[in-house]
Structures are given as structure tokens and as C-alpha cells.
Amino acid sequence: MTVLDRWVRRVAEHPPPGPFRARFWRSPLRGPWFTAVLSVALLPGITLMFLTGLASYAAYNPNLAPGNDTTPGKGLLGSWLPTWPAGPSWLYWVNQGVHVTLGLVLIPIVLAKLWSVLPKLFEWPPARSLVHLADRASLLLLVGGAVFELVTGVMNIQYYYAWPFVFYQAHYYGAWVFIAAFVVHVAFRLRRLVTALRARSVIRELRTPLSATRPEPPDPDHLVSPDPAPPTISRRGALGMVAFSSLALLGLSVGQTIGGAARSTALLAPRGLQLGSGPNDFQVNKTAAMAGIGPVDDSWRLEVNGAVSKLFSRAELLALPQHTARLPIACVEGWSTGVQTWTGVRLADLADLAGAAPDDQLFVESLQRGGGFGTVTLSAGQVRAADALLALRVNGADLSLDHGFPARIVVPAIPGVHNTKWVTGMTFLVG
Amino acid sequence: MSAMARRESIQLLALLAGFAVAGYAAIRLLAGNPVGIGAWFVGSAVIHDLVLFPLYAGLDAVLVLLLRRYPALACVGGVRWLNYLRVPAVVSALLLLVWSPLILQLPTAFHAASGLSDQPFFRHWLAVTVVLFGLSAATLTARIATKPEDAA
Questions:
Q1: Which helix (H) or strand (E) holds B48?
Q2: What is the ipTM of this complex?
Q3: Does B55 touch chain A (CB under 8 A)?
Q4: How would you label A346-356 residue by residue, b for 16+ Cβ within 10 Å and e otherwise?
Q5: CA-to-CA distance for A239 and B136, rounded, in angstroms?
Q6: pTM here?
Q7: Which tens digit of pLDDT belongs to each residue from A201-246?
Q8: Tell me, what's the pLDDT at B152?
Q9: Cα–Cα distance between B74 and A50 in angstroms, integer?
Q10: Which residue from B29, B87, B91 is facing A177, i.e. has the nearest CB?
Q11: I need a surface site. Which of A62, A91, A321, A426 has the fewest CB within 10 A?
């Protein structure tokens, strides 16, 4: 044995005081079964978060035109995504409602899971082998990634941009860093998860009161305390508290996604406030004042470019065949306007007037200056969708300035900000 | 090669593959502001593990220790009240943690962007908190009332 070996062994056998010593951790609830129950909830939950997140990213059609792409350097992390469809109309609404609301619901479960495995952070020795060291490094990506995604998501839906980065890039690339670590983590713990779950009956555990709560038997991962304190809460009580916290977050926010009368139940979500009962009294992503739009007068003209170029006044647009569509607008932030009744000119009709080809895309420009999403490129499928409109009226009234007067885009199933407001130019382009 | 060693090599390979994908994404994540973004990423884990966890676990441990030291205080009407405090406190604290930007009116852009008032969130959180503690107190009272005398 070399001097180095002896020294390493000495350090390994003498953990520093405090959390590095197993007896520091005394909760009688920690154990493989308790952790496994939380993991069983997180596994499908996190998978769904990743998939809805990826779908939300694809919904911006980043591969259609450079202007749609908030992550031009994405490379293999999305260049293969297909073009987003123009329906069913609830597609983005449901996707984004699930992504944001589920994210909120998972927060208590993630925190409980981290609580259940926290002694592992202070494992001693810090690394037993190369594999162990690599595994622990991947846990930094896993935990850092999970908390980073939750924190950036939660801050973004509250308009709290207190970070030194662009949200879209950070949240998207952060998700890929996380999911890489997550897949490996799950793959090498799935068997342990199944074993741990089989060790105890869920039904029996739900019938076990505090007076009968005992620690789990010692486990090879040392999650179970070697010196457990008397329990102060049953396992069912602790899990119930986590579930109740998730339900509270769900119940106090989902109304902003559903809209209508349910909106008032979203007491703490950003878009839980009702605006009124008028035809234009529904949620606005960006007010006219915020977008730097002053009053728009009769001199406004819409420039439509295709094989031919035309200028339209609002009266001329109103004189064209009008189509009415009942569509929701859903924001990436998870809230929705609920279904509104939009009236205007079909994008397909405008395409025909401009002499556009059936597979032409549409580049839309807004009067909005500065800020994000003043322009968008829509796919040929979106342009030709039956309910894709240049809307002039909503719920039987003229659009208000906040909702995009004199004219705005409304297309089924696209992210809210792509329904461009205060439209000033439309150019049909070969895709 | 033993089964254990084989398993370890496979795990090492999988971890390296995971790092390759994560690294590919991390290069893109960190582009522009490596220090700032890296600090937020690592800081997320550090703040949870070394600030948030010690804070809530410490508060709970102090409470539990006090009740263990003074057992007479731990019961009211023969019922242990600790969890009737824990549950509403945990839910209320979580709601505050998640919605703190709006509750504390930190985002400057919220009103300008949405046209909505940013005033009611603190009031709503307070009301929800009062209801949570109220429901918990009512449940505790019901428990005390229905408790058999001999078990007290």
C-alpha cells in the first residue's frame, strides 16, 4: 500500500462533522420506498414536460424562416423538427396549458424528492470510483437543470426577467442539458425503483397512521437513517402534504388556461384577473402602449405583396368576403383568452388576391417597433387553413387598439405572439 | 470481467454519452454569457441545497425539538397539533415561493404588458393563507371534539 492509498483511506474513514456523517440525518421517513413513490410521479410528469416543451418550441416554426428562430445556433437540437400544423385549434392551447400548469404542479414533488435524497449530496467519501464521480457530476446537471428550468419558467410567466440571458435560449438549451442527465439517471435507477416500490404495499402504507409508522429497513444506498428520530408525521401524511401542495398550485392557476368564468379561480396566476364583459375585454399579451403603438387613423393601409402588390384601406378589407371563426389565443406563458369570435378576411383569399401560389409562405409585419415578435413567417398550411384570418372584428365589435386594430392575424393552433397585431405588411413568399 | 465491473463500464459509457449530449447543449446554453448563465445553472442547485433546504428543515427541526423538550405544549385537547401547523404553513410558503415575483410586485413590466393591476396578488396570497390556516384549525377542533375521552 502506497502512502497515497493510506491517506485516501484515512480521509474516507473520517468524514467531516455535520451533514457528512450518516447520523446527522435522522428523519424516519427517508428511505428507498418513499423516494420511489415520488419518482414514480416525476417520471411521467417530467417526460410530459419535455415533450410539451419540445412541441411548444416546434410550434414557433423555427425552421421555416430565420425570423421565427429564437435559437439560430440550435444545430441538432431541433433542426429536424417538422412544421407545426394549423389545427386542431386547441392544439397549442392544450399543449401550453399542460406544460405550464404541470410544471407548477411538479414543483412540490421535485422539492420533496430532493428532500428525500439530500443526504446523498453529502456522501463521504465524495468519490469512491471514477463511475461514482461521473454519476455525481451528472447529478449536478440533473438537479441544477431541474431547478434552473423550474425557476426560469416560473419567473418568465410572471414577467420577472431578472436574468442575464434570453429566456427562449436558456429554457430550451437548459432543457436539453437536463434531459441528457435525466435519461441516464432513470436508465440506471429504474430497477432500483421497481424493487423499492415492491418492498411495501401502497395500500397498506396509506392505512398506516403515525403511531404505526416505522423506518424502512436499512438499504444499500443509505437513504434510511442509521439513527432515526421518532416520527412526527406518517408516510401517508407527508405524501398527502406534497399532493395537497400540488393540488393547491393547480387549483389556483389552471383557471387562467381554461378562461371564462373559471379564470376567477386563478387567484395567484398572472392572468387570473377578469377585464370586464365587453367584446374586447379579454387578455392581452402586449398592450398597444407597451408596443409603442399610438392611435391608428384612416391613413393606415395594408400592403399586400405577391405576384402583384396591393394597398388596402380598412374599409376595402371590410368590403371583401368576411369569414367568422371561433378560436382561442394561447400564450407560451400558459394562459389563454378562451374562445373568441373573430371576423375578417381569410388569409387564403388575400393570397389569391395577391396571386400567391398554393405553397407560398406568408411574411407578416407589424407596426410594432422594437420588442420581440414584430414579424412572423407563417407556413403555407397555416395560410391556407380554413379559419386562418386577417381579423378586423372580434365578438361583433371592431378590434380594440390593444387587440391589434386595425387588423391582426388569427390562425388556429399557433403560439399567441405569432397572431401578429397592428399588421401593416403581408408578403407571400416561395417556401 | 465480473458482472459488477461490466455494469460499471456500461454505466460509465452511458454517463459519458449523457455528458456528450449535455455538453452539446451546454455550449449553446452558455454562449453569450458563460459566467452569468453558468452561475444561474449551478446556483439553482446550490441555492436549493445549501439555502432553501437548510432553512425549511432547520425551522422544522427547531419546532420539533421544542415540542420534544416541552411535551406539555405538543398537545391541545389531547391532539398533537404539529401537523395542523405544518400543512398550511408548507402550502402557504410554497405558494409564496412560486408566486413571489407577483406577490412582492417585483416585475416592472407586468402592468405595462398585460394592462392588469399588479396590486391584488399579495392580498390573494394572504387570503389563501388565512383560509388554509382556518381550515386546518377547524379540522383540529373537529378532531378534538370527536376524540374519545379515554384516549386523551
A1: none
A2: 0.96
A3: no
A4: bbbbbbeebeb
A5: 17
A6: 0.96
A7: 999 999 999 999 999 999 999 999 999 999 999 999 999 999 999 9
A8: 43
A9: 45
A10: B29
A11: A321
